[in-house]
Specification:
CATH topology of the largest domain: Rossmann fold
CATH architecture of the largest domain: 3-Layer(aba) Sandwich
Largest sheet: 6 strands, parallel
Structural class: alpha/beta
Shape: globular
CATH class of the largest domain: Alpha Beta
Length: about 425
């Protein structure tokens, strides 16, 4: 059987012999909205919660947080109706600023802005990239109940009307993205993100969990400290087209959105697999190793201990994190990574190495990638040059009839084993 796997901006093709059943593990792929703009307009006309547009009529400073280049958000459909709503409130273009929420990623440069924002937005409104390492841009808003210090972009926090725009989709340890997360994480800094993400080691910090997830609930508290007023979020299908849109109170948007997301993303499988081939889902989800690790994090949910996982991720921007790269280089084994990380305590960047090492204690993983293989080896990623050869080698060690699991869109898939 020929298999086709998203890879960067193209598709990989490989062959699985007929004596090995192939299970393509795809969540339901809902049909897109017939008119995505109309879907967004409808969401903006029917806000969830008590928020009302008239509450912000004539606002002097409007701040809109948008995701960076590592997250595919259909801004071309989401933003024009939102800007029409703001104009109808009598808010001039000059009062509106877009904040690109990069989190601890490097700031985006102006020449990169057209890659994520429509030309008409760039022509009419002020757009700035957050820089988490510039302390002069930050303000302190206190601590959450879990002790996370809240440091966020000062200009955003001090605005009269604070909006977030993004997607609701599965997140491997925050449960789901969306809602206030764009600002709470994307416009904060290491002092906030590190203690929040440190809770990923808690048993409740699981993919697809919301109400009991300590990481996600801490994010909600950060958003409340910031005072985010409104979220405009989309739920996307595998082609990254809008299925539905939701707007209003950020917490209610996520609660409604996660039910749509679960229906779109969850899929039952009959067993755990000794052999899995997984892809983040192509560009931009495999833009770098930092993002692509999620493909392994989702695959591990249905991987048999001692099995093999091949990750296919183009990673044109390499590791994606100087902190991750610098910390990992020089370490000789995944066991050393696990030991050093636990001894030193949680740190953003090194946590990505730990996630690989944690899952590497369960399965043997390999990375098919365009990134420099010397760097990939130094990062303990086990790069391979020939995908088909690795598939053939793995199958040769398995009994005939052993099913092979294929996760083409791992990052937007929540697989689970059904023992019915």
């Amino acid at each position: 059987m020929q298999i086709h796997i998203p890879y960067g901006k193209t598709t990989l093709t490989a062959h699985i012999p007929d004596e090995y059943p192939v299970h393509i593990i795809e969540a339901p792929n809902p049909a897109p909205a017939a008119d995505p703009r109309r879907a967004v307009e409808d969401a903006l006309d029917h806000l969830l919660g008590e928020i009302r547009w008239d509450d912000f009529r004539g606002a002097q400073r409007v701040a809109i947080a948008v995701n960076d280049k590592t997250r595919p958000v259909p801004h071309e459909h989401l933003l024009p109706p939102l800007m029409e709503q703001l104009a109808a409130l009598g808010i001039p273009d000059s009062a509106i600023t877009f904040y690109i929420a990069v989190g601890t990623h490097p700031p985006m440069t102006p020449d990169e802005f057209p890659g994520i924002l429509p030309a008409e937005i760039l022509a009419r409104y002020r757009v700035v990239s957050h820089d988490s390492q510039d302390d002069s841009l930050l303000t302190f808003l206190g601590e959450t109940s879990r002790g996370t210090p809240v440091w966020v972009n000062r200009a955003y926090a001090e605005s009269d009307f604070k909006i977030v725009v993004g997607n609701v989709e599965p997140h491997q340890f925050a449960g789901f993205s969306g809602g206030v997360k764009t600002a709470a994480i994307g416009l904060s800094c290491m002092k906030t993100i590190a203690p929040n993400h440190a809770m990923m080691s808690l048993p409740e910090a699981q993919l697809g969990e919301y109400e009991t997830n300590p990481v996600r609930q801490d994010i909600e508290e950060i958003g409340a400290k910031i005072g985010v007023h409104l979220a405009l979020n989309a739920i996307l299908n595998h082609q990254r087209r809008i299925v539905t849109a939701l707007a209003g109170d950020p917490r209610l948007v996520v609660r409604a959105g996660l039910e749509h997301s679960r229906r779109a993303c969850q899929v039952a499988v009959p067993q755990k697999y000794a052999f899995l081939i997984t892809s983040p889902g192509g560009h931009p989800k495999d833009i770098n190793v930092y993002q692509s690790q999620k493909a392994l994090g989702h695959a591990i949910l249905i991987a048999r201990p001692g099995g093999t996982v091949i990750i296919t991720a183009a990673c044109p921007e390499g590791s994606g994190s100087d902190h991750y790269e610098a910390w990992t280089l020089g370490k000789k084994s995944l066991a050393e990574v696990r030991e050093k990380f636990k001894a030193e305590g949680f740190r953003i960047g090194p946590h990505k190495a730990y996630q690989f090492a944690r899952d590497g204690a369960i399965v043997n993983y390999y990375l098919y990638t365009d990134m420099n293989h010397d760097l990939a080896r130094a990062l303990l990623l086990n790069p391979i040059s020939d995908l088909q050869a690795m598939i053939d080698q793995t199958l040769a060690a398995l009994p005939r009839g052993e099913p092979v699991g294929i996760l083409p869109h791992a990052v937007s898939t929540i697989p689970y084993v059904s023992y019915q």
